[in-house]
């Protein structure tokens, strides 16, 4: 048995524009996770830059920030046993070509830049990202 964790999940602008919000939320519910918070917003430049600060030296950073600020996203907190790894497994590899069949990215993404969804990659990033996107805290 793993520990109960809370992870930060964001449906990126492509997922919202393509009408995949309910489909994606259903997949998280389907693996038994519980939504603790949801914000629908168009991220500010400051928020997107802080969220992706770890990638600021990468060649794709400015395109990534521009993309994620281009329209509404769905920012969510999901809780449950091993929520961080379970969510990453559900999402699939960054590059849809390498994503396991049946994952969100394998099923719906056809571009590495527009890969629909973000999920925290560890406990430290989850804590950082939840604090950034949910500064007023979460329901218990
Ligand atoms: P992740 O979203 O699977 O955790 P990261 O390596 O953290 O992937 O990269 C963050 C985001 O940056 C990716 O989801 C994708 O949108 C974008 N990205 C990552 N690698 C590339 C790349 O090689 N070219 C363009 N965009 C990329
Ligand atoms: Mg990442």
TrEMBL record:
Residues 4-140 form the Nucleoside diphosphate kinase-like domain. Keywords: ATP-binding, Cytoplasm, Kinase, Magnesium, Metal-binding, Nucleotide metabolism, Nucleotide-binding, Phosphoprotein, Transferase. It is an enzyme of class 2 (transferase). Its main location: cytoplasm. Signal peptide: none annotated. Its EC number is 2.7.4.6. Coiled coil: none annotated. ATP binds at residues 12, 60, 88, 94, 105, 115. Belongs to the NDK family. This is Nucleoside diphosphate kinase. It comes from Candidatus Thalassarchaeum betae.
């Amino acid at each position: 048995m793993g520990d109960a964790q809370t992870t930060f999940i964001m449906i990126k602008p492509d997922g919202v524009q393509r009408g995949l919000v309910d489909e994606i939320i259903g997949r998280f519910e389907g693996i038994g996770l519980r939504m603790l918070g949801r914000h629908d917003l168009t991220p500010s430049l400051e928020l997107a830059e802080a969220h992706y600060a770890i990638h600021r030296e990468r060649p794709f950073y400015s395109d990534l920030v521009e993309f994620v600020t281009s329209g509404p996203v769905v920012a969510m907190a999901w809780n449950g046993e091993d929520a961080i790894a379970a969510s990453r497994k559900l999402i699939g590899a960054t590059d849809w070509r390498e994503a396991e069949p049946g994952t969100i990215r394998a099923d719906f993404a056809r571009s590495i830049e527009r890969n629909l969804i973000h999920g925290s990659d560890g406990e430290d990033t989850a804590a950082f990202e939840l604090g950034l996107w949910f500064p007023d805290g979460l329901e218990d």
